[in-house]
Write a structure and sequence with these properties.
The chain contains 7 helices and 16 strands. By secondary structure, it is α+β, with helices and mostly antiparallel strands. Strands 8, 9, 10, 11, 12, 13, 14, 15 and 16 form a 9-stranded mixed sheet that branches. Strands 1, 2, 3, 4, 5, 6 and 7 form a 7-stranded antiparallel sheet that branches. A hairpin with a 2-residue loop joins strand 4 and strand 5.
């Protein structure tokens, strides 16, 4: 894999197209030291960005919750995102908008910092090993928990919220797992390190945790809509870890993960059933058909 700072082409940086390897961030940027940084992850399918407006809405919401304003309009960000995808000739890939506080102040207070914005995009395939996705990936259970909602801006894609996700995923991979299941502050099932989670019971109903301390993902909402269109009943509720033996199937949803079957969580095993495979196929059909500006 080519390191991300050694790639070629252009990156949209503060309303200019800058050579990929010339994009610089000062080492004393507030966003680096104090995590005053928000971002998005978007997928490109057949040259089109899936649900661009919803991602842009969340990008701006995250910035507002973090106490700063993105110095461009949503329309400017949308047009710039479409432009850089075309400029980079990305057909099936990923888009990463990022906004962060600059280096004008270096302390906890940062009201006078400049807000920088970057949009980068690159060709990118499956988040998980495609062969593992067919069999279902395996998760451990993380020792880290999603914090209580009154301790963090939990409903944002803010950089600092992912610190324990990296720790959890590294531990999982060192143990031979693909990812990690995280519990919430009360000990209920929350999500994986970068994706929401669903379970299927023996009756064919789907059960998914209430997103009250973690992101209600755009892919999560999309898959719920697909499932409801197939008359699959959805139960959004608190789910205890000890309920897992009662479920027949399990899968993850996310912009990167898409719809990924899970075959194992710790000592609990699940079947990669037709319902999950059908939801995955329907999701792929949707994202490759839907064209949004």
């Amino acid at each position: 894999m080519i390191p991300y700072d050694k790639r070629s082409g252009k990156i949209w940086y503060n309303n200019e197209l800058v050579d990929w390897q010339d994009v610089k961030v000062h080492v004393l940027s507030h966003g680096l030291h104090y995590a005053s940084c928000v971002f998005e992850g978007e997928r490109v399918y057949d040259g089109q960005i899936f649900k661009l407006q919803e991602h842009t809405d969340r990008f701006f919401y995250s910035a507002k919750r973090m106490g700063f304003e993105i110095p461009y309009s949503q329309d400017e960000i949308n047009k710039s995102t479409i432009h850089i995808v075309a400029k980079q000739n990305v057909k099936n890939g990923y888009v990463r908008p990022v906004a962060w506080r600059g280096s004008e102040m270096m302390a906890i207070s940062a009201q006078q910092t400049k807000i920088h914005v970057v949009i980068a995009t690159w060709e990118w395939g499956s988040y998980f090993d495609p062969n593992l996705k067919k069999k279902g990936i395996k998760l451990n259970v993380s020792n880290w928990r999603r914090p209580a909602p009154n301790t963090i801006p939990w409903d944002t894609k803010a950089a600092g919220l992912y610190m324990i996700c990296t720790l959890s995923k590294h531990e999982a991979e060192s143990q031979g797992y693909a990812d990690s299941l995280m519990l919430d502050h009360e000990g209920y099932i929350a999500e994986a390190t970068g994706a929401n989670i669903f379970f299927k019971d023996e009756n064919g109903d789907l059960h998914t945790p209430v997103p009250d301390s973690f992101l209600n993902g755009i892919t999560r909402r999309t898959v719920i809509e697909i499932a409801e269109s197939k008359n699959i009943k959805i139960h959004e509720r608190k789910i205890k870890p000890e309920e897992m033996p009662n479920f027949a199937g399990c899968f993850l949803t996310g912009t990167a993960a898409e719809v990924t079957p899970v075959s194992q969580v710790a000592e609990f095993n699940f079947k990669v059933c037709n319902t999950i495979l059908d939801l995955s196929e329907s999701y792929q059909a949707l994202v490759r058909k839907k064209k949004e500006a």
